[in-house]
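Annotated sample (chain length 220).
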Amino acid sequence: MGVMSFAFTGPRLRLRHFGTDMKGTNRVQICFGLPEPLRPQAAHLYWQAFGGKLGRVMGPAPRAHAFLLRVLRADHCLCALSDDGALLGIVGFKSPQGSFAGGDLADLQSVYGHLGAAWRSALLRLLQSDTDNDRFLVDGLCVAPAARGQGIGSALMAALMDEARARGYSAIRLEVIDTNIRARALYERLGFAAWRSETLGPLRHVFGFSRAVTMVRALP
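Output written by the structure step:
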């Protein structure tokens, strides 16, 4: 089995290393922030990961991509890059200053028009998590299909937990939907435990899932 070296760079992050196999690739860098040239790749990757959940609200796909290109915050994420600079994965987070894939009504209006923005905004508000001043909030984890199952997601989450500790948080929190069994299994392996569960009721027909589980992990 080959060895992949994960190098963590950027503010507040220390170098760490993980051993795994990845089809001949021997180095992956995990860095704080999103390089501007990779913004289109990040929007595409985010939509690949969450289009099934948000497609009926944020679609069609070209408009969803345009919206993501407009709102993704480069200073609210960590990226996994291959040795040739390709984007392998990304994990976003929320802070008092905003979120990785947020945006506001003006952003929605710019892409979907006033009428399209109005009903989309109303539905999206129903999915927004409450604020949490005690736990660092994850805002989406995405791994490129060709890089899945090779430690990228675990490495991104480990780096994000380092970032949370550096910011003084004692716990980290995320949400996973009931249809994303693979993601929940990853989070459980990383020490997350279910904290609460919320059902969508009739809105399950809009969003394509029935229940969202909030998971929390302490950061010793």
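Annotation: The domain at 5-218 is CATH 3.40.630.30 (Aminopeptidase).
Annotation: Residues 1-6, 8-25 have pLDDT under 50 and may be disordered.
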